[in-house]
Write a structure and sequence with these properties.
Elements: H1 4-15, E1 17-20, H2 22-30, H3 33-46, H4 54-94, H5 104-127, H6 131-144, H7 155-170, H8 191-206, E2 210-213, E3 222-225, E4 228-232, H9 234-244, E5 248-251, H10 253-263, H11 271-315, H12 326-365
Parallel strand pairs: 1-2, 2-5
Antiparallel strand pairs: 3-4
Helix pairs in contact: 2-3, 2-4, 3-6, 3-11, 4-5, 10-11, 11-12
Length: 366
């Protein structure tokens, strides 16, 4: 038996609009030839159901060169990282003193052989980079989306959404408030809100529902329960119905692929391969985000600890720190207590995030 939600979404796909975030379009540039072809095939079979807000097209054009050049930069970056890692391993081996079982010279030669083989594979990959093919993909996407892109917003509309967005974000009214701290152009942090407004206007004007495809995992789009994305935020469904008098659905791209394959048999054969590639890309993105967050925390921790050590040196009368009056000493002690609290606050989220992350992963695997 088909669940009620699946029947409702199937009906929406039959006569509604399929909209996506820019990252969904950028997947057509990131993956292997098989995956790119299947994604384009999907967009082609969707036909008149495919439509994107102008803001999505704008962000796609802004970001596509970053994706293309990022893929080219990966060759040199990977070589540089491997050389650095293996040099550390070499130096550690050189420090091993007489050892009953480790043959240092043999292991050094093995590292050199590994690096040589790795360089060869990376250079082969660089030589096979499909630059012209990717240009062709952009052309195909442009043609597919011809007459299927929303209208550019006027300056007065952008000013109005900025004013509304400031108020919505302050009250944490979805979508987009998670971008409130985004350090970018004047309207960039309101990109999600602009996309939202465009979808409502399109659904209202054409009297058609919307299925929104998003790889964004933020809570200002998704109703998240115990680490699982259950669907769109209830506030979004309510606002969409109130303003457009239509239904609003949201899917992760991999979820939508499985759903669409039931309706369009021509894309069914390679859905599993495409989904695997998308999930691997998402895992890599999570690792990048986690690494960036860890690096930021480490930098913050070093800064706090350096200031703490400096204050301790001054209070202990370390040479070169000068003399202190009682008022200065009291102020420094107060700052030292504040720093200790900040350091504790920085270190505690690391442990709690790790525990929460393990729980989410376990629930998702289940």
């Amino acid at each position: 038996m088909v669940p009620e939600k699946a029947r409702a979404d199937s009906k929406a796909l039959g006569y509604g609009y399929l909209c996506s975030r820019p990252n969904v379009l950028l997947h057509c540039l990131r993956h292997t030839t098989v995956v790119r072809d299947e994604l384009l095939r999907l967009f082609e079979v969707l036909g008149d159901a495919l439509w994107i807000p102008y803001q999505v097209g704008l962000e796609f054009q802004r970001n596509r060169l970053d994706v293309e050049f990022g893929a080219l930069d990966a060759y040199d970056a990977l070589l540089k990282d491997q050389e650095a890692n293996l040099e550390k391993a070499r130096e550690r081996l050189r420090q091993v003193r007489a050892h009953p079982t480790i043959d240092v010279q043999r292991e050094l030669s093995a590292l050199d052989m590994f690096l040589s083989d790795f360089k060869g594979r990376i250079e082969d990959a660089r030589a096979a980079h499909p630059s012209s093919e990717i240009e062709g993909v952009v052309e195909r996407l442009t043609k597919l989306l011809e007459n299927r892109v929303g209208e550019k917003w006027r300056a007065d509309q952008l000013a109005a959404v900025k004013k509304e967005g400031e108020d919505r974000y302050a009250k944490k009214i979805p979508p987009g408030y998670k971008d409130n701290k985004k350090d970018a152009g004047e309207f960039d942090k309101f990109g999600d809100l602009i996309i939202w407004k465009e979808m409502i206007a399109k659904a209202k004007a054409d009297k058609r529902p919307v299925i929104f495809i998003s790889d964004d995992a933020k809570e200002d789009w998704w109703w998240i329960h115990r680490g699982r994305k259950m669907g769109p935020r209830p506030e979004l469904i309510e606002e969409f119905r109130a303003q457009a008098e239509q239904e609003f659905h949201i899917y992760e791209f991999s979820q939508f692929l499985r759903f669409a394959a039931q309706r369009f048999p021509e894309i069914k054969a390679n859905v599993e391969k495409v989904e695997e590639s998308l999930l691997a890309d998402e895992e890599a993105r999570r690792r990048q985000v986690d690494a960036a967050a860890a690096s930021e925390l480490d930098a913050r921790m070093r800064s706090l600890e350096d200031e703490r050590d400096q204050i301790i040196g001054i209070l202990s009368g370390a040479p070169g720190t000068g003399s202190l009056v009682s008022g200065d000493r009291a102020g420094l002690r107060a700052r030292l207590e504040e720093l200790n609290r900040e350091i504790k606050a920085v270190t505690q989220p690391r442990a709690s995030d790790s525990a929460v992350g393990d729980g989410v992963d376990a629930s998702e695997r289940g």
